[in-house]
Specification:
Layout (H helix, E strand, L loop, with lengths): L15 H17 L3 E2 L5 E3 H8 L4 H6 L1 E4 L5 E4 L4 H10 L2 H4 L3 E10 L11 E10 L4 H17 L5 E7 L6 H13 L7 H9 L2 H4 L4 H6 L12 H16 L5 E2 L11 E9 L7 E7 L3 H4 L7 E7 H7 L4 H4 L5 E5 L2 H16 L4 E3 L6 H11 L3 E5 L1 H6 L1 E6 L5 E5 L3 H12 L1
Parallel strand pairs: 1-5, 7-8, 12-13, 12-14
Antiparallel strand pairs: 2-4, 3-4, 5-6, 6-11, 7-9, 9-10, 10-11, 14-15, 15-16
The chain binds histidyl-adenosine monophosphate.
Amino acid sequence: MIQLIRGFKDILPGEIEVWQYIEQVATALFADYGFSEIRVPIMERTELFARSIGENTDIVEKEMYTFADRKGDLITLRPEATAAIVRSYIQHKMQTSDPVRKFYTIGPMFRRERPQKGRYRQFYQIDAEGFGIASPLIDAQMITMLVDLLARLEVADTQAHINSLGCPACRPGYTAALVAFLDDRTDVLCEDCRRRKTSNPLRVIDCKVPGCREAVADAPAFLDHLCADCADHFQAVRDGLDSTGTAYVIDRRLVRGLDYYTRTTYEIQTGRLGAQSAVAGGGRYDGLVKALGGPDMPATGFAVGFDRLAEIVGVSADALQRRPAVFIAALGATAQKRAFEWTTALARRGIIAEMDMADRSLKSQMKRADRLGARWVVMVGDDDLAAGEAPVRDMTTKEQIPMPLAELVEQMVGRAGAGK
Ligand code: HAM
């Protein structure tokens, strides 16, 4: 038997209801905050991701699904959505009509990481991006929106962590201080970090190897090296969050796995997902639009790990599942034809009605009705058709009453509507 690829998964009925619910809540929330949906392709030129996420990141170095298409062009399955949305913003010259754009997108991303709980090779993100606003208010708004999303979904035990990663003016000063600190500890760093120390020193702070974690425990923090503008910006983000009553902690160790960030960065963390503590992450990326050939345009955004969110959301698929209101247990060819007409008429009125399309016995049809969780079962045979009346069983009370068949559709619409 052919199995699915390692790190990939099916999302089946029984689980998908939670996904649909999250998507509905997220979509409504984005609309409330004035974000419009955008859909970008799942594949882009490799160069787009390499240049935006950064050549020396784990994602670009080891995790991208990259292949040459039949013409030899290098194509990558998107590991994230931000780069593609920036590409779209630039390509459609969106800044010319209105530089301020707020987008969201929901869809699959691909990273060839080591699969484990909460970490998949195809995973889904709920992503939001805001362009053209330099003000710290948009950072505060996006963090608030993210925290509101978790609140609307009744997700408990999460915390917003915020930090600042400065700007091109203060980054060299911080990097120099960090490299000087790491220089004294080279011998305890892992092989990757020795390399990163020169190629991408910020990544060393994020290394999961215990020796490196220990070594950087008291590394200098960016917050102590921010230039005056970045420090003011960060303070204003905090003020904005305080004014909306959004709780957060300052996390001086927070760095992100992608290189494009400037100033505000944040993650939503939880203790409920084992080693994968980040439910969402994001921040400002003021240099990216320009770096990819667009105008000099500030931008900021976040992505929620949909799979992780689905695991901790406070609602069960069972509670969300829509069950048939009525099951029509038809016996005989004529009754089956009528049942087909009734189920169609009911579906057209928004009422789920099921029937058996084979010639199964009443007993097996009743069993199936029960398994499907139908609220009522109408039992119709040729005699009932002739009499113009058939018994309806209430599957909860087990009560059985006769129903005039001419009124079946209206009666069921009435009952199911009342019970909705
Ligand atoms: P990221 O931190 O790489 O940021 O990913 C965001 C979230 O996606 C993570 O917090 C996590 O919940 C989820 N995630 C990442 N990798 C996996 C995986 N292998 N399996 C399951 N879930 C995963 C970004 O992708 C940025 N583009 C966010 C952003 C938008 N920044 C600015 N705008």
